[in-house]
Each structure stands twice: as C-alpha cells, then as structure tokens.
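Why does residue order matter? Because the sequence determines the fold. Keep that principle in mind as you read this record.
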Amino acid sequence: MNKKFKKYIVFWLSQSVSQLGSQMTGFALILWAYTQSRSAMTVSLMSFFNYIPYILVSIAAGSFVDRHRKKTVMLVSDSVAAVCSAAVLLFSLSGALRMYHIYAVNFVIGLMNSFQQPASAVAMGKLVPEEKIAQASGMNSFSSNLVMVLAPVFSASLFAFGGLWIVLLVDLMSFAVAFFVLLLLIRIPQDDPADMDQQSVFEGCGEGFSYLKRNRLIFTVIITMALLNFFSRLTYENILSPMILARSGSDSVALGIVNAVMGAGGIVGGILVASGRFSKDGVKMIYLSAMLSFLLGDLLMGAGRGVIVWSFAGLMASLPIPFINAGQNLILYRDVPAQLQGRIFAVRNAIQFSTIPVGILIGGFLADHVFEPFMRRQGALAQFLSLIVGEGDGSGMAVMFLCTGILGSLFSFLFYLSSTGKKTK
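Structure:
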C-alpha cells in the first residue's frame, strides 16, 4: 500500500473519532432544544447559526488556506471548536445553559469550519494518490455514516444515563485523540506559497471565481448542487428530527433508529464507492444518485407513518449520498490544479452551501407557520393530503417531504441532461 495513503488512513481514523464525538453532542443538543421549546424553528436556528459564518467567511478562507500550513489551520480550528464545547459543558453543569448560548457556540464553530474544511480537503489531495481519490471519498462516506449510526445510540444512552454533560465530555476526549494524532503523527506536504505572497485575500478569491467561470462543468455542478442543498435543508437535514419526534410522541428511540438506519445506508454506499467497481463518470454519479435519493427517500419519508417506513426511506435517501460526494471529488481533483484547490474548494463551499441557511430558515418557518397549521384546518386539499401522510402533529412537515421529493428529483434529472450536454460539447 502507498505510504502516503497509509498516513491518510491514520488521519482518517482519528478524524472519524473526533466526528463521532461532535455528532453525539449535536444529537444530544437537538433532543435538549426540542424538549425545551417544542418548535421546529428552534432546531432550525441551531443549524442556521452554524452555517451563516461558514458561508460568509468561506470565500476568503480558501486564499488563506492556500498560503498557510494546512496542518496548522486544522489544529487551530479544531482547538477553538473544542473550547466552544467546553463552554457548553460549563454552562450545562452550572444549570445556566440557554438556547442563545448554543446559537453563539454554533456560530463560532461554523466560523472555524470555514477554514478547517478546505484545509482538510486539500490535505486529502496531498495524502491520497490520484487513482485512489474515489476510494478515499468512499472511506469518508463510510466513516461519516458509521458515525451517523453510532452517534444517536451512544448519545441517547449517555444522555439518559448522565445528562448532557457526559456527552460533551466524550466529545472533548475524542477531540484530544484527533488533535494529538494530527500533531504528532501526520505530516502534510506543503506547497511553495511564494507565488501567492503578493496576493490579497480578495485577489485570491477573484482567481478562484475566474477559474470557475472558465470551467463551465465545475461551475454548473456547484450551482446545481446549491439548489439541491436548498431542497435537502428544507426537510431531511432540517425538520426530520422534529417531524419524527412530533409523529412518535417525542420518542427519542424512534428518532435514533431512523438516524441509525440512515447511517447504515451511507455505510453501504460508502463501501460500494470505495470498492472502485462503479462508473467513474462524475456527472452520472452526482445527478442520477441525487434523483434516486429525492424520489425514494423524501417521498417515502413523507408518506410513512411509522418507524419501519421511515427507516426504509432514510436508507434510500442516504445510500446514494456517497456516490454524489465521490462524483464531485472525481471532477474537482481531476480538473483543479493543486495550487488552486484551497481557493476553489472555499469558493465552492461558499456558493454551494449558501442556500443551506436559507433552506433552514424557510423550512423551519414553513413547518411551524404554514404546513402544520394548514393540515390542522382540514380543508379539502388538507383532507386529500391526509390520505397520504396521515393526520395530527407532524403531518404538515410530512407534506413538505412530498414537495421536496418531487421537486428535487425533477431538478436532478433536468440538471443531468444539462450537464451531459456541456460535457459532450
């Protein structure tokens, strides 16, 4: 096995441990927040404050990352995020934890992620041989979805046993493992930054935008993924937890099972991608996989009325996601020069993820103030929809899943036709 790739495996394992801790904290905070407020908007705002600084800073962060040591950027970013978790732990132990504390902490963590993620993406390109990019992407999907399986189970168990503080303590311990592995064991090759010494941050950003303007396929992929991200944040990655809690009588076990099955689907998808036996056509991997995820995942989740159907819907929604990620990586690492990757990945993040906070806010608002009240009024259309999604709390959010399932799959198909045309010209 390639020596660089072995280093990447060690890096990947340590980062997976850290991700498990942070996901456990995220799940525990969702449970805590929803039981405090019983509002989907409250949960949506947690994600909103995490993404806003990420979007605003990402454009400039890429130029910064390209000019500095990626290892240092990751160590500092992760350390600041750990301080935020420690602050939540102290507030929790003192009984003074409030929602605005969580919003503030998520804001800072989002700010750190705007530097950490492009640095990590560039590090992957430096540690992984080009011929193993798809496999590495599959490994990342495997670990992130394994975390999705384990985090709800571990988090719910620890939360029930000792409360929020013990989950936060595990999070800090996992950070320490990842920090010292990166500090002591991983060496990330550093490009000569001399050619960028005279560039301002904004000149670096302009260079990134200029490159995307010239490369129409990459630009189209980023723009269309931004729209698909909007649909996914309206429902799946936003109001899924409130909907299941509302429709199951606040059954955290049911929510944990659905999240675990979603993670299992991602694990299977990650293994399939890592096997390297599938198409290396990035466009097909992105758009056909997205169409399958929306068509089966969202529609079934909206129509489902119990844990079994919700779990199957989650499986069908999550299994194609590793193929989407691998398709993007195939195109980006193949076409983007190494010395531009930090800027391109950061600009990509800023554009592609700019629709996420919008989707989060609109999704929370539509759930609380439009679709839920609409289904309670029991008009003619509401009665018809109730034949599909059922009645009671959460039925309005279920209708939202039907909408994103139809729109997301339709746009995925149209974007596939458009991108195929660009690629063949």
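The chain has one domain: 3-185+202-424.
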